[in-house]
Amino acid sequence: MAWPTDIVAKDHGRTLEIAFDDGVTISLTAERLRVESPSAEVQGHGPGEKRTVTGKENVRIVDIEPIGNYAIRIVFDDGHSTGLYAWDYLRRLGPA
């Protein structure tokens, strides 16, 4: 598994750029991160419970908090902050 070496919010919080130790750098929009949040609020508690989140085109990242050595919590300006984004989940959200 690749580990992040740098995580930076760019473009006034509209984009998150993540550099991994295998040389790959991905850029994810705040909108994509918000609508694909790994939180139970978005993903549900079981198969088939995923909720479609809309209206987040202008959402921004206001804070990034480390969670141990395996994830980050992203705080968005709409108040959402319950998803824990593990390294492998962030990598899967990036381009193939």
What is the succession of H and E elements?
A: EEEHHEEEH
CATH class: Alpha Beta
End-to-end gap: 15 Å
Mean pLDDT: 93
- Total beta strands: 6
Integer tally of domains: 1
Count of helix runs: 3
GO molecular function: metal ion binding
Domain Gamma-butyrobetaine hydroxylase-like N-terminal: 9-91
Keywords: Iron, Metal-binding
Organism: Roseiarcus fermentans
Report on this model:
With 96 residues, the protein is an alpha+beta fold. It has one domain: NE0471 N-terminal domain-like. Helices cover 18% and strands 35% of the residues. The chain has 3 helices and 6 strands; from the N terminus they run βββααβββα. The strands form 2 sheets. The protein has a 3-stranded antiparallel sheet. Strands 4-5-6 form a 3-stranded antiparallel sheet. The longest helix is centred in the last third of the chain and has 7 residues. The radius of gyration is 13 Å and the shape is globular. The relative contact order is 0.23. This is DUF971 family protein.
Brief summary of the model shown:
This protein is an alpha+beta fold and 96 residues long. The chain is built from 3 helices and 6 strands, in the order E-E-E-H-H-E-E-E-H.
